[in-house]
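Reopening: structure tokens for the FE2/S2 (inorganic) cluster complex, inputs below.
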Amino acid sequence: MIQLVELSVNGERHDLAIEPRRTLVDVLRHDLGLTGTHVGCEHGICGACTVLVDGAPARACLIFAAQVEGAEIRTVESLSSDGELNDLQRCFSEHHGLQCGFCTPGMLMLAEGYLAEEPEPTTEEIREVVASNLCRCTGYQTIVEAIDDCAARRRAALQDRLDRRAS
Amino acid sequence: MVEPRFRRDGAWVGASVPRREDPRLLAGRGRFVDDIALPGMLHAQFVRSTEAHAELLAVDLDEVHAVPGVVAAYTAADLDLADITALLDRPAHEFVPTAMPVLARDKVRYVGEPVAVVVAKDPYAAEDGVEAAVVEYAPLEPVVSDLGALAEGAPLVHAEAPRNTLVDVSLFATEGIDDVFAEAHTVVEVRTKTGRQNALPLETRGVVADWDDRDEQLRVQTCSQVPHQVRTVLARCVGLDEKQVRVTVPDMGGGFGQKCVVGREEIAAAAAALRLRRPVKWIEDRRDALTAAFLAREQRYVVRAAFSADGEILGLDADVVCDMGAYSCYPFTAGIEPLMASAEMPGVYRVPAYRVRGRAVTTNKAPTAPYRGVSRPQYVMVVERVFEKAARALGIDAVELRRRNLITVFPYTGVNDITYDPGSYLESLDLCEKTLREEGWFSRRSDENRVIGIGFACFSERTGYGSGAFAQRKMQVVPGFDISEIRMDLNGTVSVTTGTLSHGQSHETTMAQIVADRLGVPYDRVKIVQGDTDRITYGWGSFASRSITIGGSAVAAASVKLGDQLKEIAAHLLSGDPEAAVLEDGGVRVGSSWLPFAEIADVAYLKAHLLPKGVGPGLAATASFDVGGDGTFSNATHGCVVELDPGTGGVEILRYVCVEDCGVAIHPQVVEGQARGGIAQGIAGALFEEVRYDEAGQPLAPSFMEYKVPTAMEIPDVRIEHLETPCAFTENGAKGAGEGGTIGAPAAVLNAVNDALRHTGVELDDTPVRREAVFRALEVTR
Ligand code: FES
Ligand code: FES
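Re-run output (same inputs, fresh job):
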């Protein structure tokens, strides 16, 4: 059976004719060519497939594409613009928060979604969030540090804007 | 040019420069094997054995062919491939050769063993096809433990291997060792069983293969740490010439050893592509990765150690049995774990008498491969337990006891016939203890209301095994050297090949730093070429912490040769003395004149008539490197503080300190990353992960629900301190840094747990440490 599904990914609309059992991660990777989102387990534990669905981190391996019609989906490919890495990606690089890079897109989207919701997390809170995904290379410390640093810089930048507006 | 974060002495080596790998990986633009799509590509999945041990009576694929989307399905008989066989040059009583068929032929030997390959238009249809296969088994009694394998009258996994023993070596047996033990003041014994573990790269194994009519080549893109070895085995299995196979490696999501052996599935998928003349992709799913991929680390030790009254170690007597599962891996064989343990066990201590028996037994479990550290996480743990037990028996502080026995004068030739190059064994121990003391952990340890323990692990790690060292293991194919070819192109850009294969270790950055220093160019002008058997001369890939020590040395040597060419040409063009020429700022200075590389390259390629007499056109050089002697030893001391929870038996790591010495660190941040990641895997083995089987040989951890991979909540932050004892015989002074973290962590954690249990009289020597065991130990005293 084939179903017509309309998806909005990184601000772009896609019309797909797919089997209802096709997962979101397979559609992203293999139908839309957005291979930045990875698959590490296909059973919802590792988080390599994390994307944002209406702003919230979600496991794309556990969702059928047909379920997220009408939602706004964001993948790692949306983070950089014009070939420039965004602040979160730069923090990951500076802190050596990635080695093989396989978990990285999932970690980035997890952090991106989380920081949008909670701009002032403690290090312990960040650690708890990072614990929802697996990384086999880094030992996690530098990932937590990268997110912590990014959050701090965003807060400083915001404060800076507020200060400037006030003066 | 990217500005380095910190540079030492103006050199690129030693600077934590931005990683060349990062931008693409962060942008989701890396290319991993599952990201590759070729026109008309088909998808393979495997029918796998549901029995641990059985005669294979029939494999019926009729229904498979009827599944919509299925294009082909093959059994072993259909594909008719040669077996994968790895050999040691050892006599029959020491080593029994066994073959691993690409698909099971008349017998299955573990649950998950590939029996048939199904090829379909999409992965979903391939799965449907697998479901439709009908396999008939005549079950045999399974062998599910090392002791079961060795038992009198045990069923045989391989008919040719009596007592299920594939490797049995007795080594060293220092003369008079029995008297040493008979007369010793104190003898302690450690009995340990370590759990089977999965190296668990987050990217599972996978391959894309297709036949190219134009190149007359079977092209294989596979995530392998050893592309040339895959080429050799594949060519042999399918009956092609080596030049008719091209293996390339895309970005790779970790390996840790699981991908440094040749997998049967990559061979079968490639064979299917060859037969169908269509691209075939195979991506291992996590269930198969957890149950049917190469595993490691299941070992049993009985070790006795003799000490004098004042704490001098007098002898070590060891028996090691490694449960290698169903097959020998290529190229290392089932000897990899027992031979490593047997050869290296005395480690950092001055052990005057040593005897060891090392065995590999075969069982009905998924086969094993080298996994980061190979046996060293286990024997270091055992030896460090020996020291803790001896310290208690002798009433000497355990750190002090180590101090009295550490090798401090180098080079030191041990009782195990290995010569250790200089390291900082004592210094690292002192600094690690001092750090924990200054942080106040020793006083917290004495808090009556808490159950806190401190554990240490002091060890060294042979890295950069050259051909000589591997030949000592008597492997029939002997890894060791590396060859590097360097080229400068027009406008002075440099590309350099390496036979090593980075899969997270940052070689695109670190190798470039090495070249940059040798030639005086910025590191981002240097491109590293790796993972392509057509473009790279036979290499051995990345394992055994060999890449920077050996590969990096070859890269450096090739750079120097290219530099000499540049100097010669420049001197001629500037009418100066080649002896006086120096490489400087991306060019050659001769006296007061300076010529940029781009202009020299211009002459070498576009105005060859201007070259000095006897110098041919082009700018290229080749160099090889091999480590002579016994390789170089990195060393470290790990210190771990744990708190036990009497209510749950839980173990919490409060602090972790690592003092490491890998000689000159090319990129300190990368070295720290290797240490932290390694420590996380060592902690995983000490406290969390275990591949278990039931009595029928059915795997009990087929998903991440059962196989507990530690997360950021379980892995602590690690404080790292660096010492630097440069290696005298590698270029750059570097020693290997890839495995040390994993090696030290189980010992440090287990010693800390036992230190916390010191008031209970209970000692736990097996890993992973079970909550119930800790809970019960504490219950006694509650
Ligand atoms: S692939 Fe989705 S959670 Fe692992
Ligand atoms: S960087 Fe390799 S899994 Fe996280």
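Chain B has a mean pLDDT of 96. The radius of gyration of chain B is 27 Å. Marking as resolved unless the reporter disagrees.
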